[in-house]
Amino acid sequence: MVVFSRQLVVVVLALVASGCAHTQIRTFDPNARADRADVNADARRDRVAMTLVNGERIRTTTLRVDAYEATWVDARTGEPHSVSLSEVQSIRVRNRRRFVLRDAALGAVAGLAMGPVLPQLDRNPNTTPPLRFQIFVTGLSTTAGTVLGGSLGYRFGRTRYVLAPTDSASAHPPSGAD
């Protein structure tokens, strides 16, 4: 029983250390077309929480960001809203699909790496565990890593876009006056 408990602790620590769940933080420059395209593509697929400078938090599934403002439709009332990007502090998008696949792969790699090591723990150094047992433990740890990594990625995976500071002149659309 001592062997099993030590092996379990090693597997859990290895899977946690592999970084199975986290928030990806990216700087978002509203003036960069590629950054706006990334935010809009992510927001089109998943739930969004936008935090304003005044601390207000807006949750939506219909966010659209252009060079000067963020627009969305209120899910309860169906009314469109917009806010200047100078008032937005950050945009957090829950990317379940992306993080499930990536974190399941990370967990599988961690499990695969730990598989050959686990049968060697708490054993007499002069003996080698049977090959079938080593293959079984490797398969078990790889499966555990895949399931745990995918589950954590589903639950906690998100991207947070933090707006890059801009000068006040570029935070507002140009006026039509000549």
Q: How many E-type strands?
A: 8
Overall spatial form: elongated
Kindly report the average pLDDT value: 76
Largest sheet geometry: 5 strands, mixed
The chain-level structural class is alpha+beta
Distance between the termini: 82 Å
The proportion of residues forming helix, as a percent range, comes to 40-55%
Extract low-pLDDT stretches.
Answer: 168-172, 174-178
- Counted by DSSP, the helix tally is 4
Strand arrangement in the largest pleated sheet = 1-8-7-2-3
Q: How much of the polypeptide forms β-strand, as a percent range?
A: 15-25%
Output the helix-strand order: HEHEEEEEEHHE
Report the radius of gyration as a whole number of Å.
23 Å
Tell me about this structure.
The structure is a single chain. Helix content is 42%, strand content 22%. It has helices spanning 2-17, 33-45, 96-114, 131-156; strands spanning 23-28, 48-52, 57-60, 64-65, 69-73, 80-84, 88-93, 158-163. It has a five-stranded mixed beta sheet with strand order 1-8-7-2-3, with helices on one face. The chain starts with a helix and ends in a 15-residue tail after the last strand.
Please write out the topology.
Elements (H helix, E strand, L loop, with lengths): L1 H16 L5 E6 L4 H13 L2 E5 L4 E4 L3 E2 L3 E5 L6 E5 L3 E6 L2 H19 L16 H26 L1 E6 L15
Parallel strand pairs: 1-8
Antiparallel strand pairs: 2-3, 2-7, 4-5, 5-6, 7-8
Helix pairs in contact: 1-3, 3-4
Tell me briefly what this model is.
Helices cover 42% and strands 22% of the residues. The chain has 178 residues and is an alpha+beta fold.
